[in-house]
Structures
1.
Amino acid sequence: MDITERESSEIELIVLKNMAQQSRDSMIYLNSEFGILYVNKAAEDLFGWTLDELRGKSIDILKVDSLSEQVKDKIKDILNNGGSYSIDSLSEKKEGNTFFCELGFYRFYDDNGNLCGFLTSQRDITQRKLAEATLKESEEKFQALYENIPSGTLIIGQDYIIEDVNHKTCEITGFSKEELVGQLCDILCPKGSGSKKCPIWVEGLNGFQGMDTTIKCKDGRKNPILKNTKRISLHGKQYILESFQDINERKQAEEVMLHAKLVAEEASRAKSEFLANMSHELRTPLNSIIGFSQILNEGTFGDMNDKQAKYVRNILNSGKHLLHLINTILDISKVEAGKMELYCERFYIQELLDDLSIVIHPMAVRKNIRFEINELTNNAQVCADKTKLKQIMYNLLDNAVKFTSFEGSVTLTLELIDSELQVSVSDTGIGIPRDAIDIIFKPFKQVDPSTSKIYGGTGLGLALVKEFVGLHKGRVWVESEEGKGSTFKIRLPQQEPLN
Ligand code: ADP
């Protein structure tokens, strides 16, 4: 529209009206009784009413919550005396949605300087209010957490000054909050930060976790603590958030436990040494009992009557049994005392199987048990302590035959798995109850001690297997089902041969 010909007052009006219409801020012009004279486009959009719907109505139509009659009187007073006024209030749009509105009230005058009404500006501040509420809520949560966590917590500034401490810090150190806040953190730091060398600031670390250190207490004690620190940002400034746990009691308990462990280890070593010595002392007379009864049994010094011969055989068998028992105890004690050594060599596994078969086969035949061996490929070599490996396999096979009834079967399987030797001994015997599986590897433990009367045995065989396997850094385990049979397995890493 070409307005060059119009009166300047008319031009001014058009310009002002256009400015009001194009303003992004919502504007409403009111008479001094809060009746609506004019609303701009932004106000129409904000409240959802049109200018025609609002013109001549009271501002009450916009349902501004805080705009009570008293508040209106107050606004009138302030504006009439030359001031301005602003409120944040809940308001309602035409379609009923509520929102947070910031309202500013100013005066406006006619050309002659007479007060002719109020100009109000409005802004939707719902998002800001929500953000403020969330921030307030998280600050409250942080504060609650900060005060109630069972750890001491400190906030330290970049100037090494303590900004805040929680209640627990005071409880642990004996200082009051007032004595700590505002002080250099070397009041608590065992190293002292007088040199101001905290790694967080100096080395630019983000924080560290689980530092085993101490904290200085008011009475001069250095209390053991476990400390975590984290660099945080508060109101645009960097701080260290430090939290620590009092581990004084734990440290004391650890020391007591360590002492108890050392005492127990010493006692165990003493026991093993005692057993080793005892067994040694017992073997000497036992060997002469066995030797002399063997000579008598062979009749070298003349014939004996039947009863004498029977008793001498009893002495000989009991002597051999006792010697076996003592040898096993001696072996276990030696391993436990750390005195048993491995003599590893490379050998053909077949040699070992031949030796074992000679002993196991007759035992299996006596019970009509099928004894099978699944060997490694021909001429396979392994590196281990041959004598101990033979003892391990013998003990497992002896048990397998012992606990398998007539007509059953026993299978020995050798495999190389990931270059480790695996030996499995399976039987179709009585099996082992689930709850006994862990105890049978302990010395003198049997599933049911009364069965030793039926099957014989002392409960030392598997204990020795476990010790010998352990010496090879291997493992032993058993899979079994009661009444159906058991499979004992050992896995031995390849050893380095002794040169
Ligand atoms: P021992 O055979 O001399 O009693 P071991 O230490 O060799 O001692 O075995 C401990 C116990 O584990 C045995 O008494 C037996 O109860 C159980 N056991 C071992 N091997 C087998 C097996 N193959 N089948 C069933 N039970 C077994």
2.
Amino acid sequence: MPDIKKPSQFDLDKSLSAQQLTLLGVVAEASGKRGMPLYLVGGFVRDLLLGSPATDFDLVVEGDAIALAQALAAQYGGRVTVHARFGTAQWFNPDFGHRALDFISTRLETYKHPGALPTVKPGRLADDLARRDFTINTLAVRIDGEYWGQLRDDLEGLKDLRGGLVRVLHPNSFLDDPTRLFRAVRYEQRYGFQIAPETLALIPPARPLIGSLSAERVRHELDLILEEEQAVAILTRLGELDLLQSVHAALEWNNPKRERFIRGLRLSQDGNSKPGLSSSGKSFLDWHFWLMDNPPTDINSIDQRLHFHAKLLESLLAASALFADVPTLAGMKKPSQAVTRLEGLPLTAVEAVFLSIPEGQARQNLHNYLEIWRHVKPKTNGHDLQKRGLLPGPRYRQILYRLRQAWLDGDVETESDELKLLEKLINLG
Ligand code: ATP
Ligand code: MG
């Protein structure tokens, strides 16, 4: 039986960058010489056909991926990392770009029970495509030797890509791997597609199985979603499909959250977010926009389900407390009061609340804290106090604190003002 159901030629040369072409050319030749069918697969092909090729290749070999990577290193140099257990290898050769190239052997996967990680065995390309999540991710382009550019479309991926449909490959797909529920919505909203009606009908019965997924797997999917440009649309759709509350009852999506999220995202992209503050990445900040109006008890409880990284949890709890405190913050007339409230909080927490609340006094205070107040320090330091004959002790901190307050609140405006105040404070004590 012929392997290829609908052979058609794909013009790779037109779609790839010169550097990608050189690299793939080398790999294609090496696999061709060894008679090893080699395919570009998955997201790379999907995005290539949609006209926005990604920079990362997914390559699968029908055969020994490790031997192929080693052969390339023998011929062209570079370094090979082997994962014998998974039958995968990485080839890194800086002459062909700064990225390592992954080689994966085509595999057959079976699921012991829903939510489990699959059991993996070597298989043919057809098996490898059949284990995938959606038809749009099953397209492959063969590149070895004379087969360069041959499109392989076993599962009607092209039709669904053209029709803008996200479709699972079989009715048990979501049961086998409930993370696909989140992936379906992510692709649907990212590309402005629709989940195919038959696939949509499979969602409600699969929902309860989300409970069988590990913390890491669900959190990973949610992180991927928050990294997306269309995060708001994805969360809205997940909310409509009741997929968020299946993760945790307190994981909600509603209009106030949506508005805050949109405002926060817009401002952080407008450059209001200073470099160094949200260095933690888009999803880190997005979690704050999403959860800051949940009370700390909710956040701790969601953390029981998702196991946030400690730094994120700490920052989310701080943002939640701060968000609840916004009315108080709005009433603070003196900068020193605001600084006392904000000092020591994770900066991302302060920044997230600043970015996502409406304009007003609280927002202004947060802005001033981030931009100005947190950098205000008195000229005097511990050394100076020592020189003045003060014995080191808690008084140092009190005095320096009072000096800083005076600068913050405008009671002191020059160095000589500060010295006068310093004299007064020393004489007082
Ligand atoms: P993205 O642009 O989001 O990276 P991608 O298609 O490259 O999209 P990856 O998560 O990098 O997605 O996965 C690569 C390929 O592996 C996918 O195209 C898909 O075919 C397959 N895959 C990934 N996750 C699953 C899953 N949970 N179930 C089945 N197949 C999956
Ligand atoms: Mg990818």
